[in-house]
Amino acid sequence: MELFMKSSSLWGLEIYLFCLFIVLSNINGVFASHNIFLDLQSSSAISVKNVHRTGFHFQPPKHWINDPNAPMYYNGVYHLFYQYNPKGSVWGNIVWAHSVSKDLINWIHLEPAIYPSKKFDKYGAWSGSATILPNNKPIILYTGVVDSHDSQVQNYAIPANLSDPFLRKWIKPNNNPLIVPDNSINKTKFRDPTTAWMGQDGLWRIVIGSMRNHRGMALVYRSRDFIKWTKAQHPLHSSPHTGNWECPDFFPVSLKNTNGLDASYRGKKNVKHVLKNSLDVNRFEYYTIGMYDTKKDRYIPDNNSIDGSKGLRLDYGNFYASKSFYDLMKNRRIVWGWTNESDVLPDDEIKKGWAGIQAIPRKVWLDPSGKQLIQWPIEELETLRKQKIIQLNNKKLSKGEMFEVKGISASQADIEVSFSFSSLNKAEQFDPKWADLYAQDVCAIKGSTIQGGLGPFGLATLASKNLEEYTPVFFRVFKAQKNYKVLMCSDARRSTMRQNEAMYKPSFAGYVDVDLVDTKKLSLRSLIDNSVVESFGAGGKTCITSRVYPTLAIHNNAHLFVFNNGSETITIETLNAWSMDVPKMH
Fold first, then answer.
1. Residue 491 parent element (H or E)
2. Which residue out of 67, 280, 327, 348 is catalytically annotated?
3. What is the reported pLDDT for 47?
4. Is there a domain that residue 584 lies in?
5. What's the DSSP call for residue 580?
6. Of 354, 377, 400, which residue sits at a domain end?
7. Which among 115, 139, 202, 381 counts the fewest CB atoms within 10 Å?
8. What is the pLDDT of residue 24?
9. pLDDT of residue 248
């Protein structure tokens, strides 16, 4: 909030002028051909229920949203485009909505930038990415759907007026589509172009997600002028039995520090690359870390990087279709991810009048081990923290003990806690049969109410006073054959009293790659926001986002507890908590 208030007077003037522009334009019929935008304005009669609506996560005033598209930083302004239904709160009528910000927290919602209107996107304008060309001109590549059979092509759009600081209007030139699938490609599985990067040969490259015979593929296309594109003879990477690859993301990461790198970074030393894919078969995302052979345009994952749903994930919870960008202003890479609803039934979304949010944008960098990514909420989020409540230091929790964190708004809060323990001797044995299970299946077996040795311990978020409802976020340490395994869970099974068999209430979980022998410490940060709990374990090594819909633990009736249900005594070394303010969403 403070950062937004310190923005230049020009920003405030832009807001005023834009509002005036909208009023005058509607009077004079300037938007007469933009029927979708007018439909958006005329849909104000739709009721919006605020019971579970988030306070500080990104979402438009109403209606359905999904994939974040083409995030970019351009001339002092952050842009976020996203898939949006301007006519309702279920999927359909999708356009590219557009919002701008100075700080990634406070936003101005603009008119849609791209909407289906021509033969090359008549049946859909789906996801894509932005690239800043060397002459400082942004360009968007996106997937167009050309017929009722979901045949897909790749199109481009450019700003109508580069002197407009908000880049409100975008043009889709008539020489679209730029890329049409050849006969070797499944034309219904050919989508979501990445940000382009330039090789040392002066050619631009992009990746497009695809599939052949259940083999996920990252197809490479090259161009010298960004208009004429040629498919490479072989994909950048592919993997059997992974299904269609959606929303691919390919970017370099530094081995030296936490700074971000531009997609076209050409350094050969102290750099690795990340390939992220979204799997539409099971709605998981995974990524690998490896080496990019620039001469052969081949990506080779490291030996310890696994392709498929058993691989590393940016988030082990409700998080999909993520898209990253390089933030030139702060020299960092930032990733956005879509967090859909879990109340499942379309009637729920219709009654609420909205569906979907974007997760808090995260800075992402390579762990010093080189084996995984680290993610952490962008520093700007801390401007929404209200007066800090330092709840306690060095408090011990014995088996079965629980205490309430008071003095904050437990339904809308930011909590950081550091746990320690004196011994690993009480860690439970890891059952070898669990090795083939997903972590969330192990969490379903060993939930927060199952007493253990070293854990479970953690937070009971969005809890009712008497714990009829709560979403526990916790750790449990196991002794495996050669090492210790740390399970982190965000378990929604007890999150609501609502009786709805269709509601999705999983025991989301992931393992945390930490060495406990020397440190014997684990940290946890949870962002709690009415119907979302976004958690970061061990400084961002493991991230889990849960969507939950309490009936009792709402607003002022929500509580937050810290608990230990293991026989090993846990010490809370520090616990800091803040109520969170609401950003400006114009």
1. strand 484-491
2. 67
3. 65
4. no
5. B
6. 377
7. 202
8. 34
9. 98
How confident is the model at residue 41, as a pLDDT? Answer: 34
Q: Could you give the CA distance from residue 459 to residue 242 in angstroms, rounded to a whole number? A: 35
Q: Which residues are CB-contacts of 278 (< 8 A; sequence separation ≥ 6)?
A: 209, 245, 246, 247, 248, 284, 285, 320, 321, 322
Q: Integer distance in angstroms from the first to the last C-alpha of the chain? A: 13
Residues 345 and 461 in one domain: no
Note whether 338 and 84 are within 8 A (CB). no
Low-confidence ranges of the chain (pLDDT < 70): 1-47, 344
pLDDT of residue 29: 31
What is the pTM (predicted TM-score) of this model?
A: 0.91
Q: Can you give the three-state secondary structure of 113-154, one letter per residue? A: EECCCCCCCCCEEEEEEEEECCCCCEEEEEEEECCCCCCEEE
Q: Counting beta carbons within 10 angstroms of the beta carbon of residue 5, is it exposed (0 to 12), middle (13 to 18) or buried (19 or more)?
A: exposed
Question: Which residue matches tokens 């834009």?
Answer: 18
Rounded Cα distance between 63 and 565, Å, is 41
Q: Is residue 25 part of a domain?
A: no
Q: What is the pLDDT of residue 482?
A: 86
Residue 148 to residue 46: CA distance in whole angstroms:
29
Helix (H) or strand (E) holding 9: helix 9-28
Q: Could you tell me the two tokens for 417?
A: 């806690």
Kindly provide the b/e burial profile for residues 391-420, where b requires at least 16 CB atoms within 10 angstroms of the residue's own CB: bbeeeebebeeeeebeebbbbbbbbebbbe
DSSP result, 267-336:
--SSEEEEEEEEETTTTEEEEEEEEEETTTTEEEE-TTPPPSTTSB-S-SSS-EEEEEEEETTTTEEEEE
Q: Classify residue 55: in a domain, yes or no.
A: no
CA pair distance 50, 107, nearest whole angstrom: 19
pLDDT, residue 343, reads: 81
What is the rounded CA–CA span in Å between residue 501 and residue 343? 10
**Amino acid sitting at position 451:** Q
For the beta carbon of residue 468, count every other beta carbon within 10 angstroms. 14
Judge whether 553 and 463 are in contact, CB under 8 Å.
Answer: yes
- Whole-angstrom distance, CA of residue 420 vs CA of residue 518: 11
Known active-site residue 302: no
Virtual torsion, Cα 185, 189, 193, 198, nearest 10 deg: -30
138 lies in the same domain as 191: yes
Please identify, among 335, 357, 377, the residue that sits at the C-terminal boundary of a domain: 377
Residue type present at position 105: I
pLDDT score of 46:
61
CATH number of the domain that residue 289 is part of: 2.115.10.20
Is the residue at 188 inside a domain? yes
- The greatest distance separating any two alpha carbons of the chain, rounded to the nearest whole angstrom, comes to 75
Task: Give the whole-angstrom CA distance, residue 199 versus residue 222.
Answer: 10
pLDDT of residue 38: 33
Name residues whose C-beta falls within 8 Å of residue 137's C-beta, 6 or more positions apart in sequence.
158, 159, 162
- What is the count of structural domains for the chain? 2
Give the structural domain span for 88.
64-377
- What strand order describes the sheet that includes 95-101? 107-114, 95-101, 77-85, 63-74, 354-355
